[in-house]
Amino acid sequence: MTIQKVGVVGCGLMGSGIAQTAAQSGFDVVVTEVSQELLDRGVKKIHDAWAMMQSKGKLTAEQVEANKARLHPTLEMQDFADRDIVVEVIIEQKEPKLALFRQLDAIVQPDALLVSNTSSLPITEMAAVTRRRDKVAGLHFFNPVPVMKLVEIVRTVETSDETVAELRAFTQAMGKTPIIAKDTAGFVVNFLLIPYLLSAIRMYENGVATMEDIDTAMQLGTNYPMGPFTLLDYVGLDTTLYAAEVIYAENPDPAYAPPPLLRRMVTLGRLGRKTGKGFYDYSEKK
Ligand code: CAA
After folding, report:
1. For residues 150 and 177, is the Cβ–Cβ distance under 8 A?
2. 154 in ligand 1 pocket by Cβ < 6 Å?
3. Do 175 and 68 sit in the same domain of this protein?
4. Alpha carbon of 94 to those of 38, 99, 277: distances in Å?
5. CATH of the domain at 221
6. What is the pLDDT of residues 200-242, one digit of tens each?
7. In this structure, how many other beta carbons lie within 10 angstroms of the beta carbon of residue 268?
8. How many domains does the chain have?
């Protein structure tokens, strides 16, 4: 099977980026959200990105129209019935994801692939609730999806070689570079990135340096595009805390134990850019 028809369940930050990238790469994309309001917001984000690309000369007006024609927003799950692949990009909680995999397994054709963009939950548990365990995998994109080149293809012990080959071709057709990882908490990137981010928080808690200086150090000392606190705010402190907890539960190494400051900031709703305040204050700082 060659993937042509793509479904994306969830049109938030990551879902809209995946739907955008798939549609602008020539795939026919059905996308859904839990309400019309959230769906409209996600689709607007995609249309705004294409308008920005057109204004920069990266897309012609005709290409923007063709992209829009390939993007089909819906609130009807039955519209996923003819999809070759469905990418799950909903809330990072186990029960809603398992319920969605059960539902999709009953809706899509037997040879369709079901994949999850989760950054930390076990793909194996999602596979286990379906009757197509060989066709279930992780497909972990990075934020901002249209820009970041990497995709982690996550295979369980039952994911077939054919599924991995199809996902490799699919991600390459979206202009991405895939790597293959086993289904272990954190996969490759977060297993390495999370302890780095947590170490920066501990370093700041211990008064080694200011946040600004730690950010400057890593940006200028290692050419990282963002320092750790800017990246924490970008990724979201809730997402970071959740990923750390999941990895720590499977791998109880103190490097993955969330520092108290991270927990307290999440408790206060200081989640980063998305709430206007995280380690930095975005109402004042441009
Ligand atoms: N669609 C298309 N193009 C887009 C776009 C979109 N939605 N958003 C941005 N772009 C383009 C811009 O137009 C711009 O293009 P040009 O260079 O041609 O002008 C380019 O992308 C870069 O954007 P900006 O100029 O706005 O910003 P920048 O140069 O400062 O780069 C950044 C921004 C790419 C985010 C960079 O700072 C960066 O790479 N940061 C690190 C991001 C990172 O590490 N992400 C991974 C987080 S971890 C994760 O996601 C996994 C997890 O599970 C937690």
Report:
1. yes
2. no
3. yes
4. 21, 9, 27
5. 1.10.1040.10
6. 999 999 999 999 999 999 999 999 999 999 999 999 999 999 9
7. 11
8. 2
**Where do runs of H (alpha helix) occur along the chain?**
13-24, 36-55, 61-70, 94-107, 123-128, 161-173, 189-205, 211-222, 228-235, 237-250, 260-267
Region for 178 from its dihedrals, namely left if φ exceeds 0, alpha if ψ lies in -120 to 50, beta otherwise: beta
Among residues 182, 202, 227, the one where a domain terminates is 182
Indicate if ligand 1 lies below 6 Å from the C-beta of 19: no
Shared-domain flag, residues 225 and 168: no
Helix (H) or strand (E) holding 227: none
CB 70 within 8 A of CB 46: no
The model's pTM: 0.95
Domain-embedded: residue 282 = no
124 shares its domain with 140: yes
Q: Ligand 1: which of 147, 222, 238 to mutate, most ligand atoms within 8 Å of CB?
A: 147
Same domain, 257 and 120: no
Please indicate, yes or no, whether residues 74 and 119 belong to a single structural domain of this protein: yes
Report CA(144)–ligand 1 centroid distance (Å): 5
**Structural domain that includes position 220:** 190-275
Residues with catalytic function? 119, 140, 152, 190
231 and 162 belong to one structural domain: no
- CA–CA gap between residue 131 and residue 18 (Å, rounded): 25
Residue range 26-84, pLDDT digits in tens: 999 999 999 999 999 999 999 999 999 999 999 999 999 999 999 999 999 999 999 99
Q: What is the CA radius of gyration of the chain?
A: 19
3-class SS of residue 153: strand
Q: Is 139 helix (H, G, I), strand (E, B) or coil?
A: strand
